[in-house]
Amino acid sequence: MAATPPPLKDLFSNKAGFQVDQNLAQQIIRWRLLYETRDTHAEALNTPLLGCFKLGFYPRDSQVLFDLLKVNREEFKRAIKQSVINPEFKVASDDYNLLIVWAVHKFLTDPKLKQDVKTRVVQALFFMLLVKFFSSLVRNFFKFGADKAVMEATIDSLTDKYDIKHPKTGTWKLVMEERAHELTLPGNIHWEALTKFSPDMGPKSIVYVLTDIQTRIRTKVRLVAEVYYDLINRGVRIGDSDITTQDADGDKVVKELRNSFESMITSICNRVINSQTFLRSDYIRAVTKLVPNVRMDMFRNMLMQYSAVASWQYQKGKQDLVDPKTGQYTGYRVLISNIIQRVYRLCIIQKVDLKSRLAILKKAMDLFRSSRVNDDIIAKIKETLEKFITDNKISSRDATKASLKIAFAVYIVFLSFDCD
């Protein structure tokens, strides 16, 4: 008669008996943030669209967790093979997946760690499990990527029974954060398995924790993919004929605001938090030629500092912050949003050809160059940029400050052209 395999808890205690503390928690939280802001990951996560931006999760990404926890991966794999888990269960027998759940157990049951730290690190761990599943699912459902216009039409056609249509979970990052939050709440269906780390198999087990998490995110992605491919199979193609639908005042730009400008703003906001994607040398050169009194080195420095501030705001959830006293657009997302909306609103009102980049740039220059401002939003944009330039000691000369404010707004408009 074959011997009963030892419990996972005993095997992992022997091969992955790391000690948890606040320093390790902070390293894991930082790992998650670094992953989010790498390459085009922010664009892929901060959108309701699927398959339009690259999101990769590679062996080197999973190896980071083993390195942080100082766990020998080969020994950990051998421990899994000694357990009752069937190696044909790809999700439940995966070493990275199991290490995530083991780390969650260790942090949840540590008696010394503060509760708020436990919550943040456990949510970060679950997010990094979900994003691994999510990236693989998107790659499988959209092997050659997705047509952006059709995907936008897909999302628009969904009802509020889809999580991605709820205001609270309107991007895939928010969908996964909400799920990670649910998994940290005492009383959730996996709480007993996570805190006891047993049983290994069956209902309410460690295996079920993993299969259930993967099944739920797969279902969300699959349902959207089904609608997308239904539109494709029906031969639906989305044109731009309604991009300038408007009323007499230009305020009700129906499809364009929802499908074009929102996507444009999201794309730019995702770039600003990563200096490598935010800074384009050709655009910097072009802006400094258009705007007087702005040196390339000074303007580049301003953009780099703004990107650093935006990255910090992103990590702290302050991207939509408006100063309650001054009304200034402190958060990067609200500032960029207002720049784009005011420039293109003016273009629509004045019937500017939206295919003419030069005409759009001219309107942007005129809008921010004028010393007499009757638009409160433009005034607040200028005040916000003035404060940023002053606080970061970019220039003390009034003429240079005025030019830098124009340059920044024009640079944002240049970035909008990448969203055509």
Word description of this protein:
This protein is mostly helical. It has 2 domains: 8-233, no CATH class; 254-419, no CATH class. 63% of the residues lie in helices and 0% in strands. The protein contains 19 helices and no strands. It has helices spanning 8-15, 22-36, 41-45, 59-69, 73-81, 95-108, 115-141, 148-157, 172-183, 191-196, 206-233, 254-272, 275-278, 281-290, 296-316, 332-349, 357-369, 376-391, 398-416. Helix 16 (332-349) packs antiparallel against helix 18 and helix 16 (332-349) packs across helix 19 (398-416). It starts with 7 loop residues before the first helix and ends with a helix. Mean pLDDT is 88; it is low at 237-258.
Considering the chains and any ligands shown, give keywords for the structure.
420 residues; mainly alpha; 2 domains; 19 helices; 63% helix; 0% strand
List the helices and strands and how they pair.
Blueprint: H1 8-15, H2 22-36, H3 41-45, H4 59-69, H5 73-81, H6 95-108, H7 115-141, H8 148-157, H9 172-183, H10 191-196, H11 206-233, H12 254-272, H13 275-278, H14 281-290, H15 296-316, H16 332-349, H17 357-369, H18 376-391, H19 398-416
Helix pairs in contact: 1-5, 2-4, 2-7, 6-7, 7-9, 7-11, 8-11, 12-16, 14-19, 16-17, 16-18, 16-19, 17-19, 18-19
